[in-house]
Amino acid sequence: MAGDENTASVPDPDGHPQTGITSGFEPQITKQVSDIKQGPKIRDEEHALDHEKGADGITRAGSESDSSYDVRKEDRFGEADVVTDARDIVTHVLHVDDDPSLSPWTFRSLFLGAGLAIFSAVLQTIYYFKPQAIYVSIVFLTVIAYVLGEALALIPRIGPVGRFLNPFPFNSKEHVFIVVMASAGATSTVAIEILAAQRMYYGMTPSPGAAVFMVIASQLLGYGIAGLLRGILVQPSKMLWPINIPVNSLMETLHRDKKETSQRIKVFLIVFAAMFFYEIIPEWIFPLLQGLSIFCLANQNSLVFTNLFGGSSGNEGLGFLSICFDWQYIASLGSPLWMPLYTLTNSLIGYLLCIVLFMGLYYGNIWESQNFPFLSQLLFDQTSNSTNWVEYNLTAILTPENEINSTAVAEAGVPYLTGTYIAYLITTNMGITAAIVHMLLWNYDDVKEGWSFLTPRNLKKVFTPSFWLFWRNSEDPEVHKQRVLADKGMDPHYKLMMQNGYKEVPQWWYSIVLLASFVIGLGTLYGIQSTLPWWGYIISNIFAAIFILFFGAQMGITGFQFNQQPILQMLAGYMHPGKPLANMYFTVFGFNGVQQGQWLLRDLKLAQLAHLSPRSTFTAQMLGTIIGAIFDYVMMETIVQNQLDILLSVNGSNIWSGQNVQQYNTLAVAWSMAKDMFSVGARYEWVTISYLIGFVVPLPFWLIYRYTKIRFFEYINLSIILWYMGWLFVGINASIMTYFAFGFFAQLYLRRYHPAWFVKWNYLVSAALDGGTQVIVFILSFAVFGGSGAANDFPIWAGNNGGVPNNRYTDYCMFNPAAAS
């Protein structure tokens, strides 16, 4: 396994990976530049366990077993080494120091946290109904929170009221508390999918109270499970959660001594302001810049060119060799500047294979692909052909109880899916099971503690009366502190928090959260007419717990988040045949629980790197979750009511799209007919068989590496490659090539050849780009894109292709007439 006997003792001078699977970064590189004036310095791969002096003259830490060990001596901020692993990142890009006297417990932090939780919930729901999946950037929330916090700090501290509203200058702990609370409010999108689907496709409107409680329950389920696993998935150094580094870098820049950070703040503000004004151009004035395709401009009469090179509009094409100038779409699933090189490389391989796979399937007419759109996630009728696409009439095959009528299906025929969507399902399903096997083969030591409770010794404890008095069984704080400080694999920032006396959250707090979510969820299932039986609900909870362990570890190490939704909908299809609503609710608690758990873990790491006390973090996340659930629901109702026709259409618009709800409902209905669609012998049997193939796929590469030690095979992660082989099945794809260009420039060129620039500027600039973009996109969503009513289009000109009516694409690629039929 990587990190064990396979770890080479001599660093590779070419920078090839040695333990890239376990770190997510290129491992040790011999040539490291410590300081331009000092010349090169070679550091021990265990982070200099022998005493040494850094560039700042501070004597660094010796052995961690030394009683005089001080975690702060691990601070290597600003040293211009080539960062090679997760521990390097958190000690070179961030300071390992803390001021325990700073308090987050103020009216200001609670007031702004609640306000931004509402704001982020509304914004994330808007983004959910966009043609490209976009997540509210924590950087964006960080910028807004800082501006508002500093504004409230101007309140005169006169009298009891003044001191209550402004007890002291706005500090970093308040800032992190606000951001964590706001982030928790922005993560309910999967839970509102089912509510939107019921409105759009089933004519059902659950009561607001039951709907909100259902959302809260699905959120807290993931929080409870992930909280219990935080010792495995958050606290170790190896669990970097690279998505957080730009945010933590920005936090430090804003709150440290202004003499030290003045240059960094200036650069941040310049980039932020530039993106704020620039994004108006590609978003509203000149949308051709969202996906500039030289090939489509040269040939506007070829559907082949549209399918291959087009991609600036929803479900248009694969966007191959298109150039994107819109950062919103370039960084739609995360800025490429922080994505580890290991992840970028595997995803690029998958992306290129996706293009070959999709074009081959469609033009080979596999599964009668040419009778349907090139890209779509809808169900189609068997009467469709290349010039007339007919959507499957879902209403005609449902009973009054919203279950599948097998007699009606026999008359109407089994629905069809597009060939590219089937390819996405096959590669994703293979990737899901391959990811589990990959983690067991390469990262067993990282995840094995997740099921340590299953040992005979621990199971025996379950039957002792004292076990059930869990509130008495918390680990002694001093014992916990000493255990953490003695663990060489523990994150230095977490060690610092324990060294400074922060109290950890008792495990039983998260146990209570998990129990409460289970009870609330079970109650709402019957009140909301979900058709999901109690035993199906319990099974969905079990799968959430299993998946959080494996896919949480994968995201923490590589920065890559896997979509587990298809496998859960398949399981639900076979357990609850003929019940699409039951399928969707099974997925809400299974998949939404996993996703929420991952977001909880991400924010726990964010707070850990910023040294916010665990109990403050717990409070912020619980409050943000409840507030966000309410406003997610309110905004979803508003958008569905105002944009219903566009949300139900095949292509949507370049502003609004129902693709997420369409995909969710499509899979629920399709898997409810699993016997006729996906079982062995059925039309799409490979969708199911692919799960079994996925278990085998990682084995050859692992065996070859184990017996040859050829590093190429260690660097390949087939679970990531397989997922990206279906990446382009929906949405706006014109930004992908630009995404990889930025990513490789930062992670390959800057990090290796200009490490000083990389350490000082890469993550800060990433934060500024995200922040400026998302602030203006939020404003434009309401001002001109119809977020609260009618849209206000920019005047017609060549840069928006004549206003882009329904029979055109923004990038001038040929429009398929069947899409308008």
From TrEMBL:
This protein's record includes keyword Protein transport: yes
Domain of life assignment: Eukaryota
Main location: membrane
Compartments where located: Membrane
Spans through the membrane: 110-129, 135-155, 176-197, 209-229, 265-285, 348-366, 421-442, 508-528, 534-553, 684-705, 725-750, 762-785
Gene Ontology molecular function terms on file: oligopeptide transmembrane transporter activity
Family the UniProt entry places it in: Belongs to the oligopeptide OPT transporter family.
Protein name (database record): OPT superfamily oligopeptide transporter
Organism annotation: Diplogelasinospora grovesii
Lineage: Eukaryota, Fungi, Dikarya, Ascomycota, Pezizomycotina
